[in-house]
Amino acid sequence: MKYDFDEIIPREHTNSLKYDFARERGKPDGLLPMWVADMDFRTPPSVREALAAKAAHGIFGYSDPDGTYFDALAQWFGTRHGWTVDPHTSVRTPGVVFAICTLIRCLTQPGDAVLIQEPVYYCFREGIRDNGRKLVVNELLFDGRKYSIDFEDFERKIVENGVKLFILCSPHNPVGRVWTRAELERMAEICLRHGVFVAADEIHEDFVYPGSRHIVFASLSEEVAQHCAVCTAPSKTFNLAGLHIANIFISNAQVRKAFKRELDAEGYSQSNIMGLVACQTAYRSGADWVDQLVAYLYENVAYLRETIRTRLPQLQLVEPEGTYLPWVNFSKLNLGAGELDRFIIDRARLWLDSGPIFGAGGAGFQRFNIAVPRATLKQALDQLENALK
Fold this sequence. Notes:
Blueprint: H1 17-20, E1 32-33, H2 45-57, H3 67-81, E2 90-93, H4 96-107, E3 113-116, H5 122-130, E4 134-137, E5 141-142, E6 147-148, H6 151-161, E7 165-169, H7 181-193, E8 197-201, H8 222-225, E9 228-232, H9 235-238, E10 246-250, H10 253-266, H11 273-285, H12 287-311, E11 316-318, E12 327-329, H13 337-347, E13 350-351, E14 353-354, E15 365-367, H14 374-388
């Protein structure tokens, strides 16, 4: 490989949320952190060079993107995902969660129903409740091997609760599904028929493994594009979360206007200049780096799969089609939620994301972050094996 993803890069004492704030988050010191979704890899060299050049310039005034920024977006989404981007439909925000909460406020009223598919990224639930909306859950079906959508329940929940907004996680975090075109089209048809707007969180879109393909929700049809917002960011793909830049695509002019009005009400205007520089550079020159990164992550998945098969038979890997956040079933240990968490922390000395934070369907599961050097992954699994013994 051209890039060294095996390099161990110390992150302690760098104000890293992942490494430096265990005690503040109620965890003991000394755990191996494999929880929050940021990677232990440096962003591409071209991005670091562009940021260094901007830092050397030394002036960090108010900034907006120009045509070259939108060209980089169009090139990335067109080449990687076969989706033609209209720059006039894009709006910048500090992040995808920020954008989803903004969509909740501008498209619904207090007490209105918002639908999610649990187990799912917990910030969705928090954003709905913190904004005074009604949480409605379409629980994903698990057949012991793979997750699927209960479409009858999906439509029934929409009708019975008068759902106004559906937050789609695509690819799905944490269960690792990359939804097929047929699945996306069926969800879209139901939402269109019942007047439900879709906020599509596609932040993990660039992490898709062989045999699967990410399909941008808005690319299904022009009608679908008019009834959705596609929420993207370079933060996961290029490990740029701390630079706070996201690109939200809203084809519907009326919704886009309402979204911008809500941003104005929040007092948000210009983006972080370093985020703009990093995003543009990454999308313009980072394709080769991402290709090698995804190949490395797929090898990490293979290592995790084989280790569970040969050394940790009490566990079950839910085979990921995408993301770098595998979902692992610990149910055979017959431990309650609190007992399992204590086992992971006190015996295995790991910091993972506990399944129940993703919803009731997460009981008995843990989410791993495998965007780490192979040696770190091996250490984590060794610690887990020793704890199980």
